[in-house]
Design goal:
Blueprint lengths: L1 H4 L2 H8 L6 E2 L5 H11 L11 E7 L2 H15 L7 H13 L2 E8 L8 H21 L3 E5 L7 H6 L7 E12 L27
Helix pairs in contact: 3-6, 4-5
Family: Belongs to the nitroreductase family.
Keywords: Flavoprotein, FMN, NAD, NADP, Oxidoreductase
Protein name: Putative NAD(P)H nitroreductase
Length: 200
């Protein structure tokens, strides 16, 4: 088992961490293609390909910050204080690439909505892993108005058709990323042996 864990792919999976504070450079175009192509391998009941991504980069990030933060404030979210807005703008200014994430729901499919959203989430996880494997950092955020319909509409994602899942911030880690102690999987595992629980 020890030898298996030293294999590059498994090592990458076991060392991936969320990295909030990022800077340029972002993955190059050919690297972005590899990262996004990895999403296409996500498990997908019904082959619906429900995942959708909207790329925001360069000067578009500042413009998106303006309209999204304005929409959040107009929604009445009291958490968007002037101090919070300043902090969010400073964070976004350093991040070179954002991917807005959504699941496009096929309401006529026999595949239930939950499974369609799970497929989109699996695609996002593939992106996170591929980003890490190429030496970059990423952070999945549901801030910046993920649950404000006006923000979703700004991105061209009609709330009647899409379930908005937030954003991936992607770039180069702005500081050293320490190893994080992970829990032992056995804490989350049980074995079913065929016995049914005794009646109360």
């Amino acid at each position: 088992m020890t030898d298996a864990l030293t294999q590059p792919a498994l090592h990458a999976l076991n060392t991936r961490r969320s990295v909030k504070f990022l800077r340029a450079p972002a993955p190059k175009p050919d690297e972005q293609a590899l990262i996004l192509q990895a999403a296409m391998s996500a498990p997908d009941h019904g082959a619906l390909r429900p995942w959708r991504f909207v790329r925001i980069q360069g000067e578009a990030i500042d413009r998106f910050a303006d309209v999204a933060l304005d929409a959040v404030k107009r929604s009445g979210d009291v958490r968007m204080t002037p101090e919070k807005e300043k902090s969010v703008r400073a964070w976004m200014a350093d991040v070179p690439l954002f991917l807005a994430l959504a699941a496009k729901i096929d309401h006529n499919s026999k595949v239930c909505e939950q499974e369609q959203v799970l497929a989109a989430g699996a695609a996002v996880m593939n992106i996170l892993n591929a980003t890490h494997m190429l030496g970059y950092g990423a952070f999945w955020s549901t801030g910046l108005g993920t649950y404000v319909e006006a923000v979703q509409e700004i991105l061209g994602l009609d709330p009647l058709e899409y379930r908005f899942l937030g954003y991936l911030a992607i770039g180069t880690p702005a500081c050293a990323v320490p190893q994080h102690e992970r829990p032992d999987f056995r804490e989350f595992l049980s074995d079913w042996t065929g016995e049914t629980p005794a009646a109360g």
